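seq:
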Amino acid sequence: MADVAAHVGVSRQLVGLAFSNEPGVAAQTRKRILDAADELGYRPNTAARSLRSASTKTIGVIFHPNESAPLEILEWIYEYGRRAGYTVIVSTASPSRAERRAIDELIGYRCEALILISPREDPDVLRSATGHTPVVVVGRDMPNSEFDVVRSRGDEGIETIVRYLADLGHTDMIYVHGSDMFDSELRLAGYRKAMSSLGLDEQVLEVRGDYTEESGASAARLLLERELLPTAIVCNNDQAALGLSHVLQQAGVLIPEHVSLTGYDDSRIASLSFLDLTTARQDPEEIGASAISAAVARITGSASKPTQRWTSAPLVVRGSTAPPSR
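struct:
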């Protein structure tokens, strides 16, 4: 920092204010300081600076890396965190790395709030682990807790898909449900509500475990054991639809000629030409922005009570759906 100050001809205190984005530094002077830092290859030691301050300006995020939707949301959490003046620190949870361990790590870094994307642990466990740190949960209901919640309208998204398929003429629709995944119960409720209102029989195929391409492939193998496939299959995420599509087509089942297929999320894989998946769009930017907004509101004290924020899930029609052939 002393080298940057000498290079620009200002005090070290002014350089510190510029790096911290504090008031009291003219815009032109701030630019000269930041340009000088780039020229000299200087980077502020944010860890050391946070130890000297009551505020670390950091938000911790925990996610499960085997799901595509959280990865896309994470991009926008970084972006909106930056806009709000916060550094985002990420930790992952997996079968070999418990959520509690990831939480302990982020609290050790003095994160001022935590964003938990589709946490698996029981709310009481999470409450005990996080203590007094503000928590925003993305993608899961947390009834009777002090956590803020951000969720897409998964029930409405799936309900819209089922009604769209019914309008095409489908009455035999099976729902592939992954109970361990992001927002799963809400999406299942949407399927059941739509089928009931249409007077159609529910058919739910539950696949346990991480809801990835392999889980969708497992669901396809189970379906192929039946004598007659349904005319439409509704998957509760795009990754599962991808795995299911691959196995069905290897077995000679054409999509959408023999079976219509839908997903949920509108992740990047949905628009790939070989899949061309009809799906419900979960807007990762809207969710990321809402999560950061909730976290910052709790950090700054502008929101004293837990909030529940909902994001939309509009239908995106592509080539994987068509009227039934029988």
